[in-house]
Specification:
alpha/beta; Helicase, Ruva Protein, domain 3; 5-stranded mixed β-sheet; Signal recognition particle alu RNA binding heterodimer, srp9/1; 11% strand; 15 strands
Length: 646
């Protein structure tokens, strides 16, 4: 023990010697490179304004740096125009520093300009040329990489031998320090709650947190306490990070922002160290807010991975976070905001009250909220007068706020591509088609027989959906390839909060109309119905195993919202039940397929007319269907827009 104690100080001194030596060399390099330099540098255009004023005493040109140092007269420094140049900063080994410097491009042109100005305006400044000596600094530049390599090698050797960065090496590299970005009232965050359209419920929750930080007495007078944490949960693109930005812009308190992955590092113990440092900084600046984006990177439930050992770095980081949020020591006036789209995999200890007291669900916007989001994103665009934002909101069902922003940007690009000076309604419709369906491929090589099969396939979808009461009415059909699809049919389904069995069955029947049309016309089927079959299989399986809408299975669901049973190894039902489920799914799909065949067989002549029209025009609309079929038997005004692809 005594020998170790004697040797330890020598080791620290040895490491410190190298580290301080590196710092000294770096500082010396910058000092030598700062010869005759100044922090005051002006543009050449500004310099040209100063020259005729006769306020310049001397100009020293440094050719090898393409720099000119300017010294002002004592009288000029008393003027308000040169007030910023009165104080000289920096170090110099050649005497007094210049008041400011200016960069030039060509030495000969610069000298000719100065001589011409001096003669024409009768100026009194002196002109001198000096070469700056960079011999020593060049030597240090060549030596510096070798010194740095040696220093880094010694540092990593120390860490590999068991050190954790407690000495000068760990301090200089700041490995255990938090990577959070600090925003305060002086920061550049200008986003406010006015910039967040829709999300009324979620916005109200976070507004209350901001209000508590501004007016704590309003709540504490009644005995209330501020929530320690709020978790923003929602699908990607719904505006979770935007809400956090608005909090940063509104709160006017220190706001620490970072991602869950910022805690992850290759060294053991670094994640927990960064958590400690983050909360230490937040406490010092309290009241403050910490925002952790994508918290699932460190907040995943512990003990789920059988391959992880006892010293799991991610679990250590999570344990430290749990302790800091609600451990033995309290964190007064430090609020933690977090965001994730995978709340189901977070650890239960992280989700409990006292840590994240509130779970704020940020849902996809409805038609009214989409209208508000469009109005926000349309402000910077040059749109045609009279553009109906309500119409645009109807055309984008299921779109998130990020999707709507993308639609607006895509519409602007399409309008610019077509040489327009304003963005009109058609540009937005084309943008929706582009985003949902993909890029049009009019030059794709398709044989006449394939094109005919695609036309009848799409006509089958259109005919069945037109004849069924609960199927979404069709708006547009195209056989122009778009994205991966050879043809596409756009529908306007009703936005429903609940779905009944007859509605699901009608939609499945319309989806199978394409394959049914191929069977009736060609007495053959093809691979073109792959996406149709995938869709109806998922719908039928959902009816049987999730929603309890099957007569054979009854009022049972095998859906587990916690995700515990979705491990791929076990099923929550017996093999006999599995056979019954498979049989029921097959029966549901086959019944709807037979129904689609019978419906198309009874309207075969109209199906043929529609397909021929589609072959002729390549794109047909709702008006074309009304000319062939007449008014829809179950007339329902469309409310939103969707897409089905083959």
């Amino acid at each position: 023990m005594s020998e170790n104690n004697k040797n330890a100080p020598k080791k620290v001194k040895f490491n410190a010697f190298w580290i301080y030596g590196i710092i000294s060399l770096v500082l010396l390099f910058f000092i030598l490179n700062s010869n005759s330099s100044t922090e005051n540098e002006v543009s050449f255009s500004k310099f040209k304004e100063y020259v005729p004023q006769n306020d310049i005493k001397e100009i020293v040109i440094v050719p090898n740096m393409r720099l000119a140092h300017v010294y002002l007269t004592d009288e000029a420094l008393k003027k308000d125009a040169y007030k910023e140049f009165a104080t000289q900063k920096g170090l110099s080994f050649i005497g007094k520093l210049p008041n400011f410097s200016v960069q030039y491009l060509d030495l000969q042109n610069f000298e000719n300009y100065l001589i011409e100005q001096k003669e024409s305006n009768k100026l009194n400044f002196t002109l001198d040329v000096k070469q700056q000596d960079n011999t020593i600094s060049d030597f240090i530049i060549g030596l510096l990489p070798f010194v740095l390599i040696i220093g880094l090698w010694l540092f990593f050797m120390k860490r590999m031998s068991g050190g954790q960065g407690g000495g000068p090496g760990g301090q200089i590299f700041n490995i255990g320090k938090s990577k959070a970005k600090l925003f305060d009232e002086k920061g550049d965050i200008k986003t406010t709650f006015k910039d967040v359209a829709g999300l009324e419920g979620a916005k109200e929750e976070v507004e209350e947190i901001v209000d508590f930080l501004k007016n704590p007495e309003k709540y504490t007078s009644l005995g209330g306490k501020i929530p320690k944490g709020a978790l923003l949960v929602g699908s990607p693109g719904t505006g979770k990070t935007l809400l956090a930005k608005a909090v940063a812009g509104e709160a006017k308190v220190p706001f620490f922002s970072l991602s869950g992955s910022d805690f992850v590092e290759m060294f053991v113990g670094v994640g927990a160290s960064r958590v400690r440092d983050l909360f230490k900084q937040a406490k010092e600046k309290s009241p403050s807010i910490i925002f952790i984006d994508e918290i699932d990177a460190i907040g995943r439930a512990r003990g789920k991975n059988a391959m992880s050992g006892s010293n799991d770095e991610r679990e250590n980081t999570l344990n430290q976070l749990l302790t800091e949020m609600d451990g033995f020591g309290t964190n007064d006036n430090v609020i933690v905001l977090a965001a994730t789209n995978r709340a189901d995999i977070l650890d239960k200890a992280l989700m409990r009250a006292g840590r994240f007291d509130r779970q704020i669900y940020v849902d996809l916007p409805d038609i009214r909220e989409r209208k508000e989001i469009f109005e926000v994103h349309l402000k910077p665009l040059k749109i045609k007068k009279g553009l109906d934002t309500k119409f645009l909101s109807k055309q984008t069902p299921g779109f998130s706020g990020a999707d709507i922003a993308n639609v607006c940007n895509e519409a602007a690009l399409i309008a610019a591509r077509n040489g327009k000076i304003e963005i009109d309604k058609q540009d937005f419709l084309d943008a929706v088609d582009r985003i949902v369906g993909g890029l049009e491929k009019k030059n794709k090589i398709i044989t006449p027989s394939e094109k005919k099969a695609i036309a009848y396939h799409e006509a089958g979808h259109a005919t069945v959906s037109w004849m069924l009461e609960h199927a979404a009415p069709l708006v547009k059909v195209t056989i122009v390839p778009r994205g991966k699809a050879l043809g596409a049919a756009w529908y306007l389904p009703e936005e429903r909060m609940i779905v009944r069995p007859e509605q699901m069955l009608d939609e499945m029947c319309a989806t199978l109309g394409g394959r049914a049309a191929e069977k009736i016309i060609f007495n053959k089927i093809s691979t073109g119905a792959l996406s149709d079959l995938e869709k109806v299989t998922k719908q039928a399986r959902g009816m049987v195993t999730v929603y309890g809408l099957s007569e054979k299975i009854g009022n049972l669901t095998y859906y587990d919202s916690s995700g515990q049973s979705e491990n791929g190894f076990t099923k929550p039902y017996s093999e006999k039940t599995a056979e019954l489920i498979d049989s029921e799914i097959s029966d549901i799909i086959e019944k709807q397929y037979v129904r689609a065949v019978e419906l198309l067989d009874s309207h075969k002549d109209k199906l043929t007319l529609l397909a021929e029209l589609l072959l002729e025009k390549e794109v047909i609309f709702r008006d074309d269907l009304e000319k062939i079929f007449g008014k829809r038997p179950f007339q329902v005004e469309p409310k939103v827009n969707g897409l089905e692809e083959e």
